[in-house]
């Protein structure tokens, strides 16, 4: 019979697993959709955080939202990209996780999200927590159970 990972493991602070903000590609609220598309394309990431000038977390932007914003009736209106601001098309309805949360909370949220943005009490962006990192930790725990 397989026993579940110990409670201690599920109680680990997420802080240990986050990719810190300095290493996370992001755009700013007042950047153009053109700039955001460039960053998304160059980095190859599916979605990236949107921050204000003081590093507060504001939302997420992805290529689908940008394309959707320039969809005309007959064709995609690429010429409009420079005039659209990221703030006007970013996604804001998704769960965030606080830096003081534990592994179990992250695990629950990462069932439905590929990654989570991590914030502190003031809403400052601290980094991201990816499903990949959490799955790697789970795998480590499960393999240790076999020994
Ligand atoms: P991964 O687990 O590395 O495949 O990352 C999953 C998603 O998390 C990516 O598609 C991005 O949306 C986001 N992500 C991961 N690492 C970064 C990073 N360094 N900067 C910005 N976004 C990232």
Automatic annotation (TrEMBL):
<dbReference type="InterPro" id="IPR000644">
    <property type="entry name" value="CBS_dom"/>
</dbReference>
<feature type="domain" description="CBS">
    <location>
        <begin position="20"/>
        <end position="71"/>
    </location>
</feature>
<feature type="domain" description="CBS">
    <location>
        <begin position="86"/>
        <end position="138"/>
    </location>
</feature>
<dbReference type="InterPro" id="IPR046342">
    <property type="entry name" value="CBS_dom_sf"/>
</dbReference>
<protein>
    <submittedName>
        <fullName>Cyclic-di-AMP-binding protein CbpB</fullName>
    </submittedName>
</protein>
<keyword id="KW-0129">CBS domain</keyword>
<dbReference type="Pfam" id="PF00571">
    <property type="entry name" value="CBS"/>
</dbReference>
<dbReference type="InterPro" id="IPR051257">
    <property type="entry name" value="Diverse_CBS-Domain"/>
</dbReference>
<dbReference type="InterPro" id="IPR048125">
    <property type="entry name" value="CBS_CbpB"/>
</dbReference>
